[in-house]
Amino acid sequence: MEFSLKNTAAERVRSACVIVGLYEDDTFSPSAKAIDDASSGYLGSLLQRGDLSGKRAQCVLLHSVPAVAAARVLVVGLGKAGELTLKGFREALAAAVKAAASGGAKEAVAYTLEWDAPSLSTADRASHTVLVGSESAYRFDRFKSKKDPGNGVLERLGVGAIAKTAQAETRAVAQAAALGEGIALAKDLGNLPGNVCTPSHLARTARELAKTHGFKTTVLEQKDIEKLGMGSFLSVTQGSAEPPKFIVMEYMGGGKKDKPVVLVGKGITFDTGGISLKPGADMDEMKYDMSGAGSVLGTFKAIAGMGLPLNVVGLIPTCENMPSGTAVKPGDIVTSMSGQTIEILNTDAEGRLILCDALTYAERYNPAAVIDIATLTGACVIALGHVVTGMYANRDELARELEDAGNAVWDRVWRMPLLEDYQEQIKSPFADMANIGGRPAGSVTAACFLARFASKYAWAHLDIAGTAWKSGRDKGSTGRPVPLLTSYLMRRAAR
Question: Which region, left, alpha or beta, applies to residue 228 given φ > 0 means left and ψ of -120 to 50 means alpha?
Fold first, then answer.
């Protein structure tokens, strides 16, 4: 989808559709009022007859409104004036975009900058207009022999404004468009089947991004990983015929003295559970177990598209977790890159085994902060469902920054406990630690395991098992937490 700013009055803009608002007290938004005035009270007469509603997200599509240049006018309910939240703003706009596209429009101009949402600046409203539009346009049909003809999808969306917009709104539209592309990449990677999205495919994607945007990417092969002493990572991959990759991306948009933020993404491109085999039902969804890696790649696409002036490193350990005669077994003990030994009690707790070596590798960058992203535990889904991402952090400031960044883009997190008491559960009589701590607090003990490898820097862990994809009839990747990560990096760059 293409996006732009339109500094033309709603009644004069030439478009397939203009989107304007109506509040529950029967008050029109300024652009809706302008259309009503130009059409000699046409909207007002419909309102009096009860044909329009200000109830949030209710839409009415009108054709050939008198004295209005646009072919269609869509009036969307905004709820009570002065009470429009970010959630309400997005819901109303999503409904309006869907209704406009379903009504045959291929492009539209949404006059959202004037909607009465007290918590949102006009730049915020411009940004979320683009993000909602981008989300509505996403489709994944590359493996269908008969493609969707495109009905019900806008091709262009303008952000309309009566007053001349400032530089902030212009920048917000451009940055949100770049973020939308990053989210789409993460969704594409997650939705690809495991026979296509292999570790080698993720490596090729990283190299293509680097070539397009001019940053450095290095792909370490198995021999390189062995030389680094990443015994924990290698234990996971030893049952698969697919070779592992360790992808290192270095986006250096800041100064040479700026410490980088390091993003570490779990890249299990298919997870059978290994010898600790998963149940067969819904195992197809384990193609999404590389969503942490996908979010790092999507975030790099977004920040490179924006040209953010800061340094960011992306680390992606990627492999398959398969059962075979060479696969790691329950009870095996491996040595991590840090030198710490791990007793593997369950081979399906493999994500932490590849992440721990990447967290040790991150030390060489003397990072400002390290954030790992992983579809790590089913326990996190039980605890938090599919609404918020579980977040663990060893620094309060980093936790607050991630919370604020997530709230700003509606990609929210919830801080979970990282108490020393839980470390007792992962003690092993035979090694420095075990890779599981039993059923109680499973998400917490997984984070406690990772914390043992992240003590030398500010660190946060995002357990996205409940938020990275949707199951059911509309199954698919959500692209989260690309919005959260990008928002966090944008805020750091702004400082």
Answer: alpha
Cis amide linkage into residue 481, ω under 30° from 0: yes
Count of all residues that appear for the chain in the document: 495
Overall average pLDDT of the 64-80 stretch: 97
Residue given tokens 């966090």 in the structure block: 488
8 Å CB contact between 374 and 443: no
Q: Is the pTM of this model over 0.85?
A: yes
Could you say which DSSP state residue 277 is in?
P
CB atoms within 10 A of CB 140: 15
Structure tokens at 29: 């938004």
pLDDT at 150: 58
Q: Where are the alpha helices (DSSP H) in 103-249?
A: 122-137, 167-191, 199-213, 222-227, 231-237
Tens digits of residue pLDDT in 282-335: 999 999 999 999 999 999 999 999 999 999 999 999 999 999 999 999 999 999
| pLDDT value for 151 | 61
Amino acid identity for residue 36 in this structure = D
Three-state DSSP state, 116: coil
DSSP class of 395: -
Residues 485 and 299 sit within 8 Å (Cβ to Cβ): yes
Q: Which domains can be identified in the chain, with CATH numbers?
A: 2-137 (3.40.220.10), 179-494 (3.40.630.10)
Neighbouring CB atoms inside 10 A of 224's CB total 13
- Conformation bin of residue 354: beta by default, left when phi > 0, alpha when psi is -120 to 50: alpha
Q: What angle do CA 209, 214, 220 make, to 5 degrees?
A: 60
Phi/psi for 51 (5° steps) reads: -85, -10
The whole-angstrom separation of Cα 305 and Cα 317 is 24
**Paired tokens of 444:** 């917490």
Instruction: Determine if residue 152 is left, alpha or beta; phi over 0 gives left, psi from -120 to 50 gives alpha, anything else beta.
Output: left
| Active-site residue set | 278, 352
- Average pLDDT taken over every residue of the chain: 96
pLDDT for res 474? 87
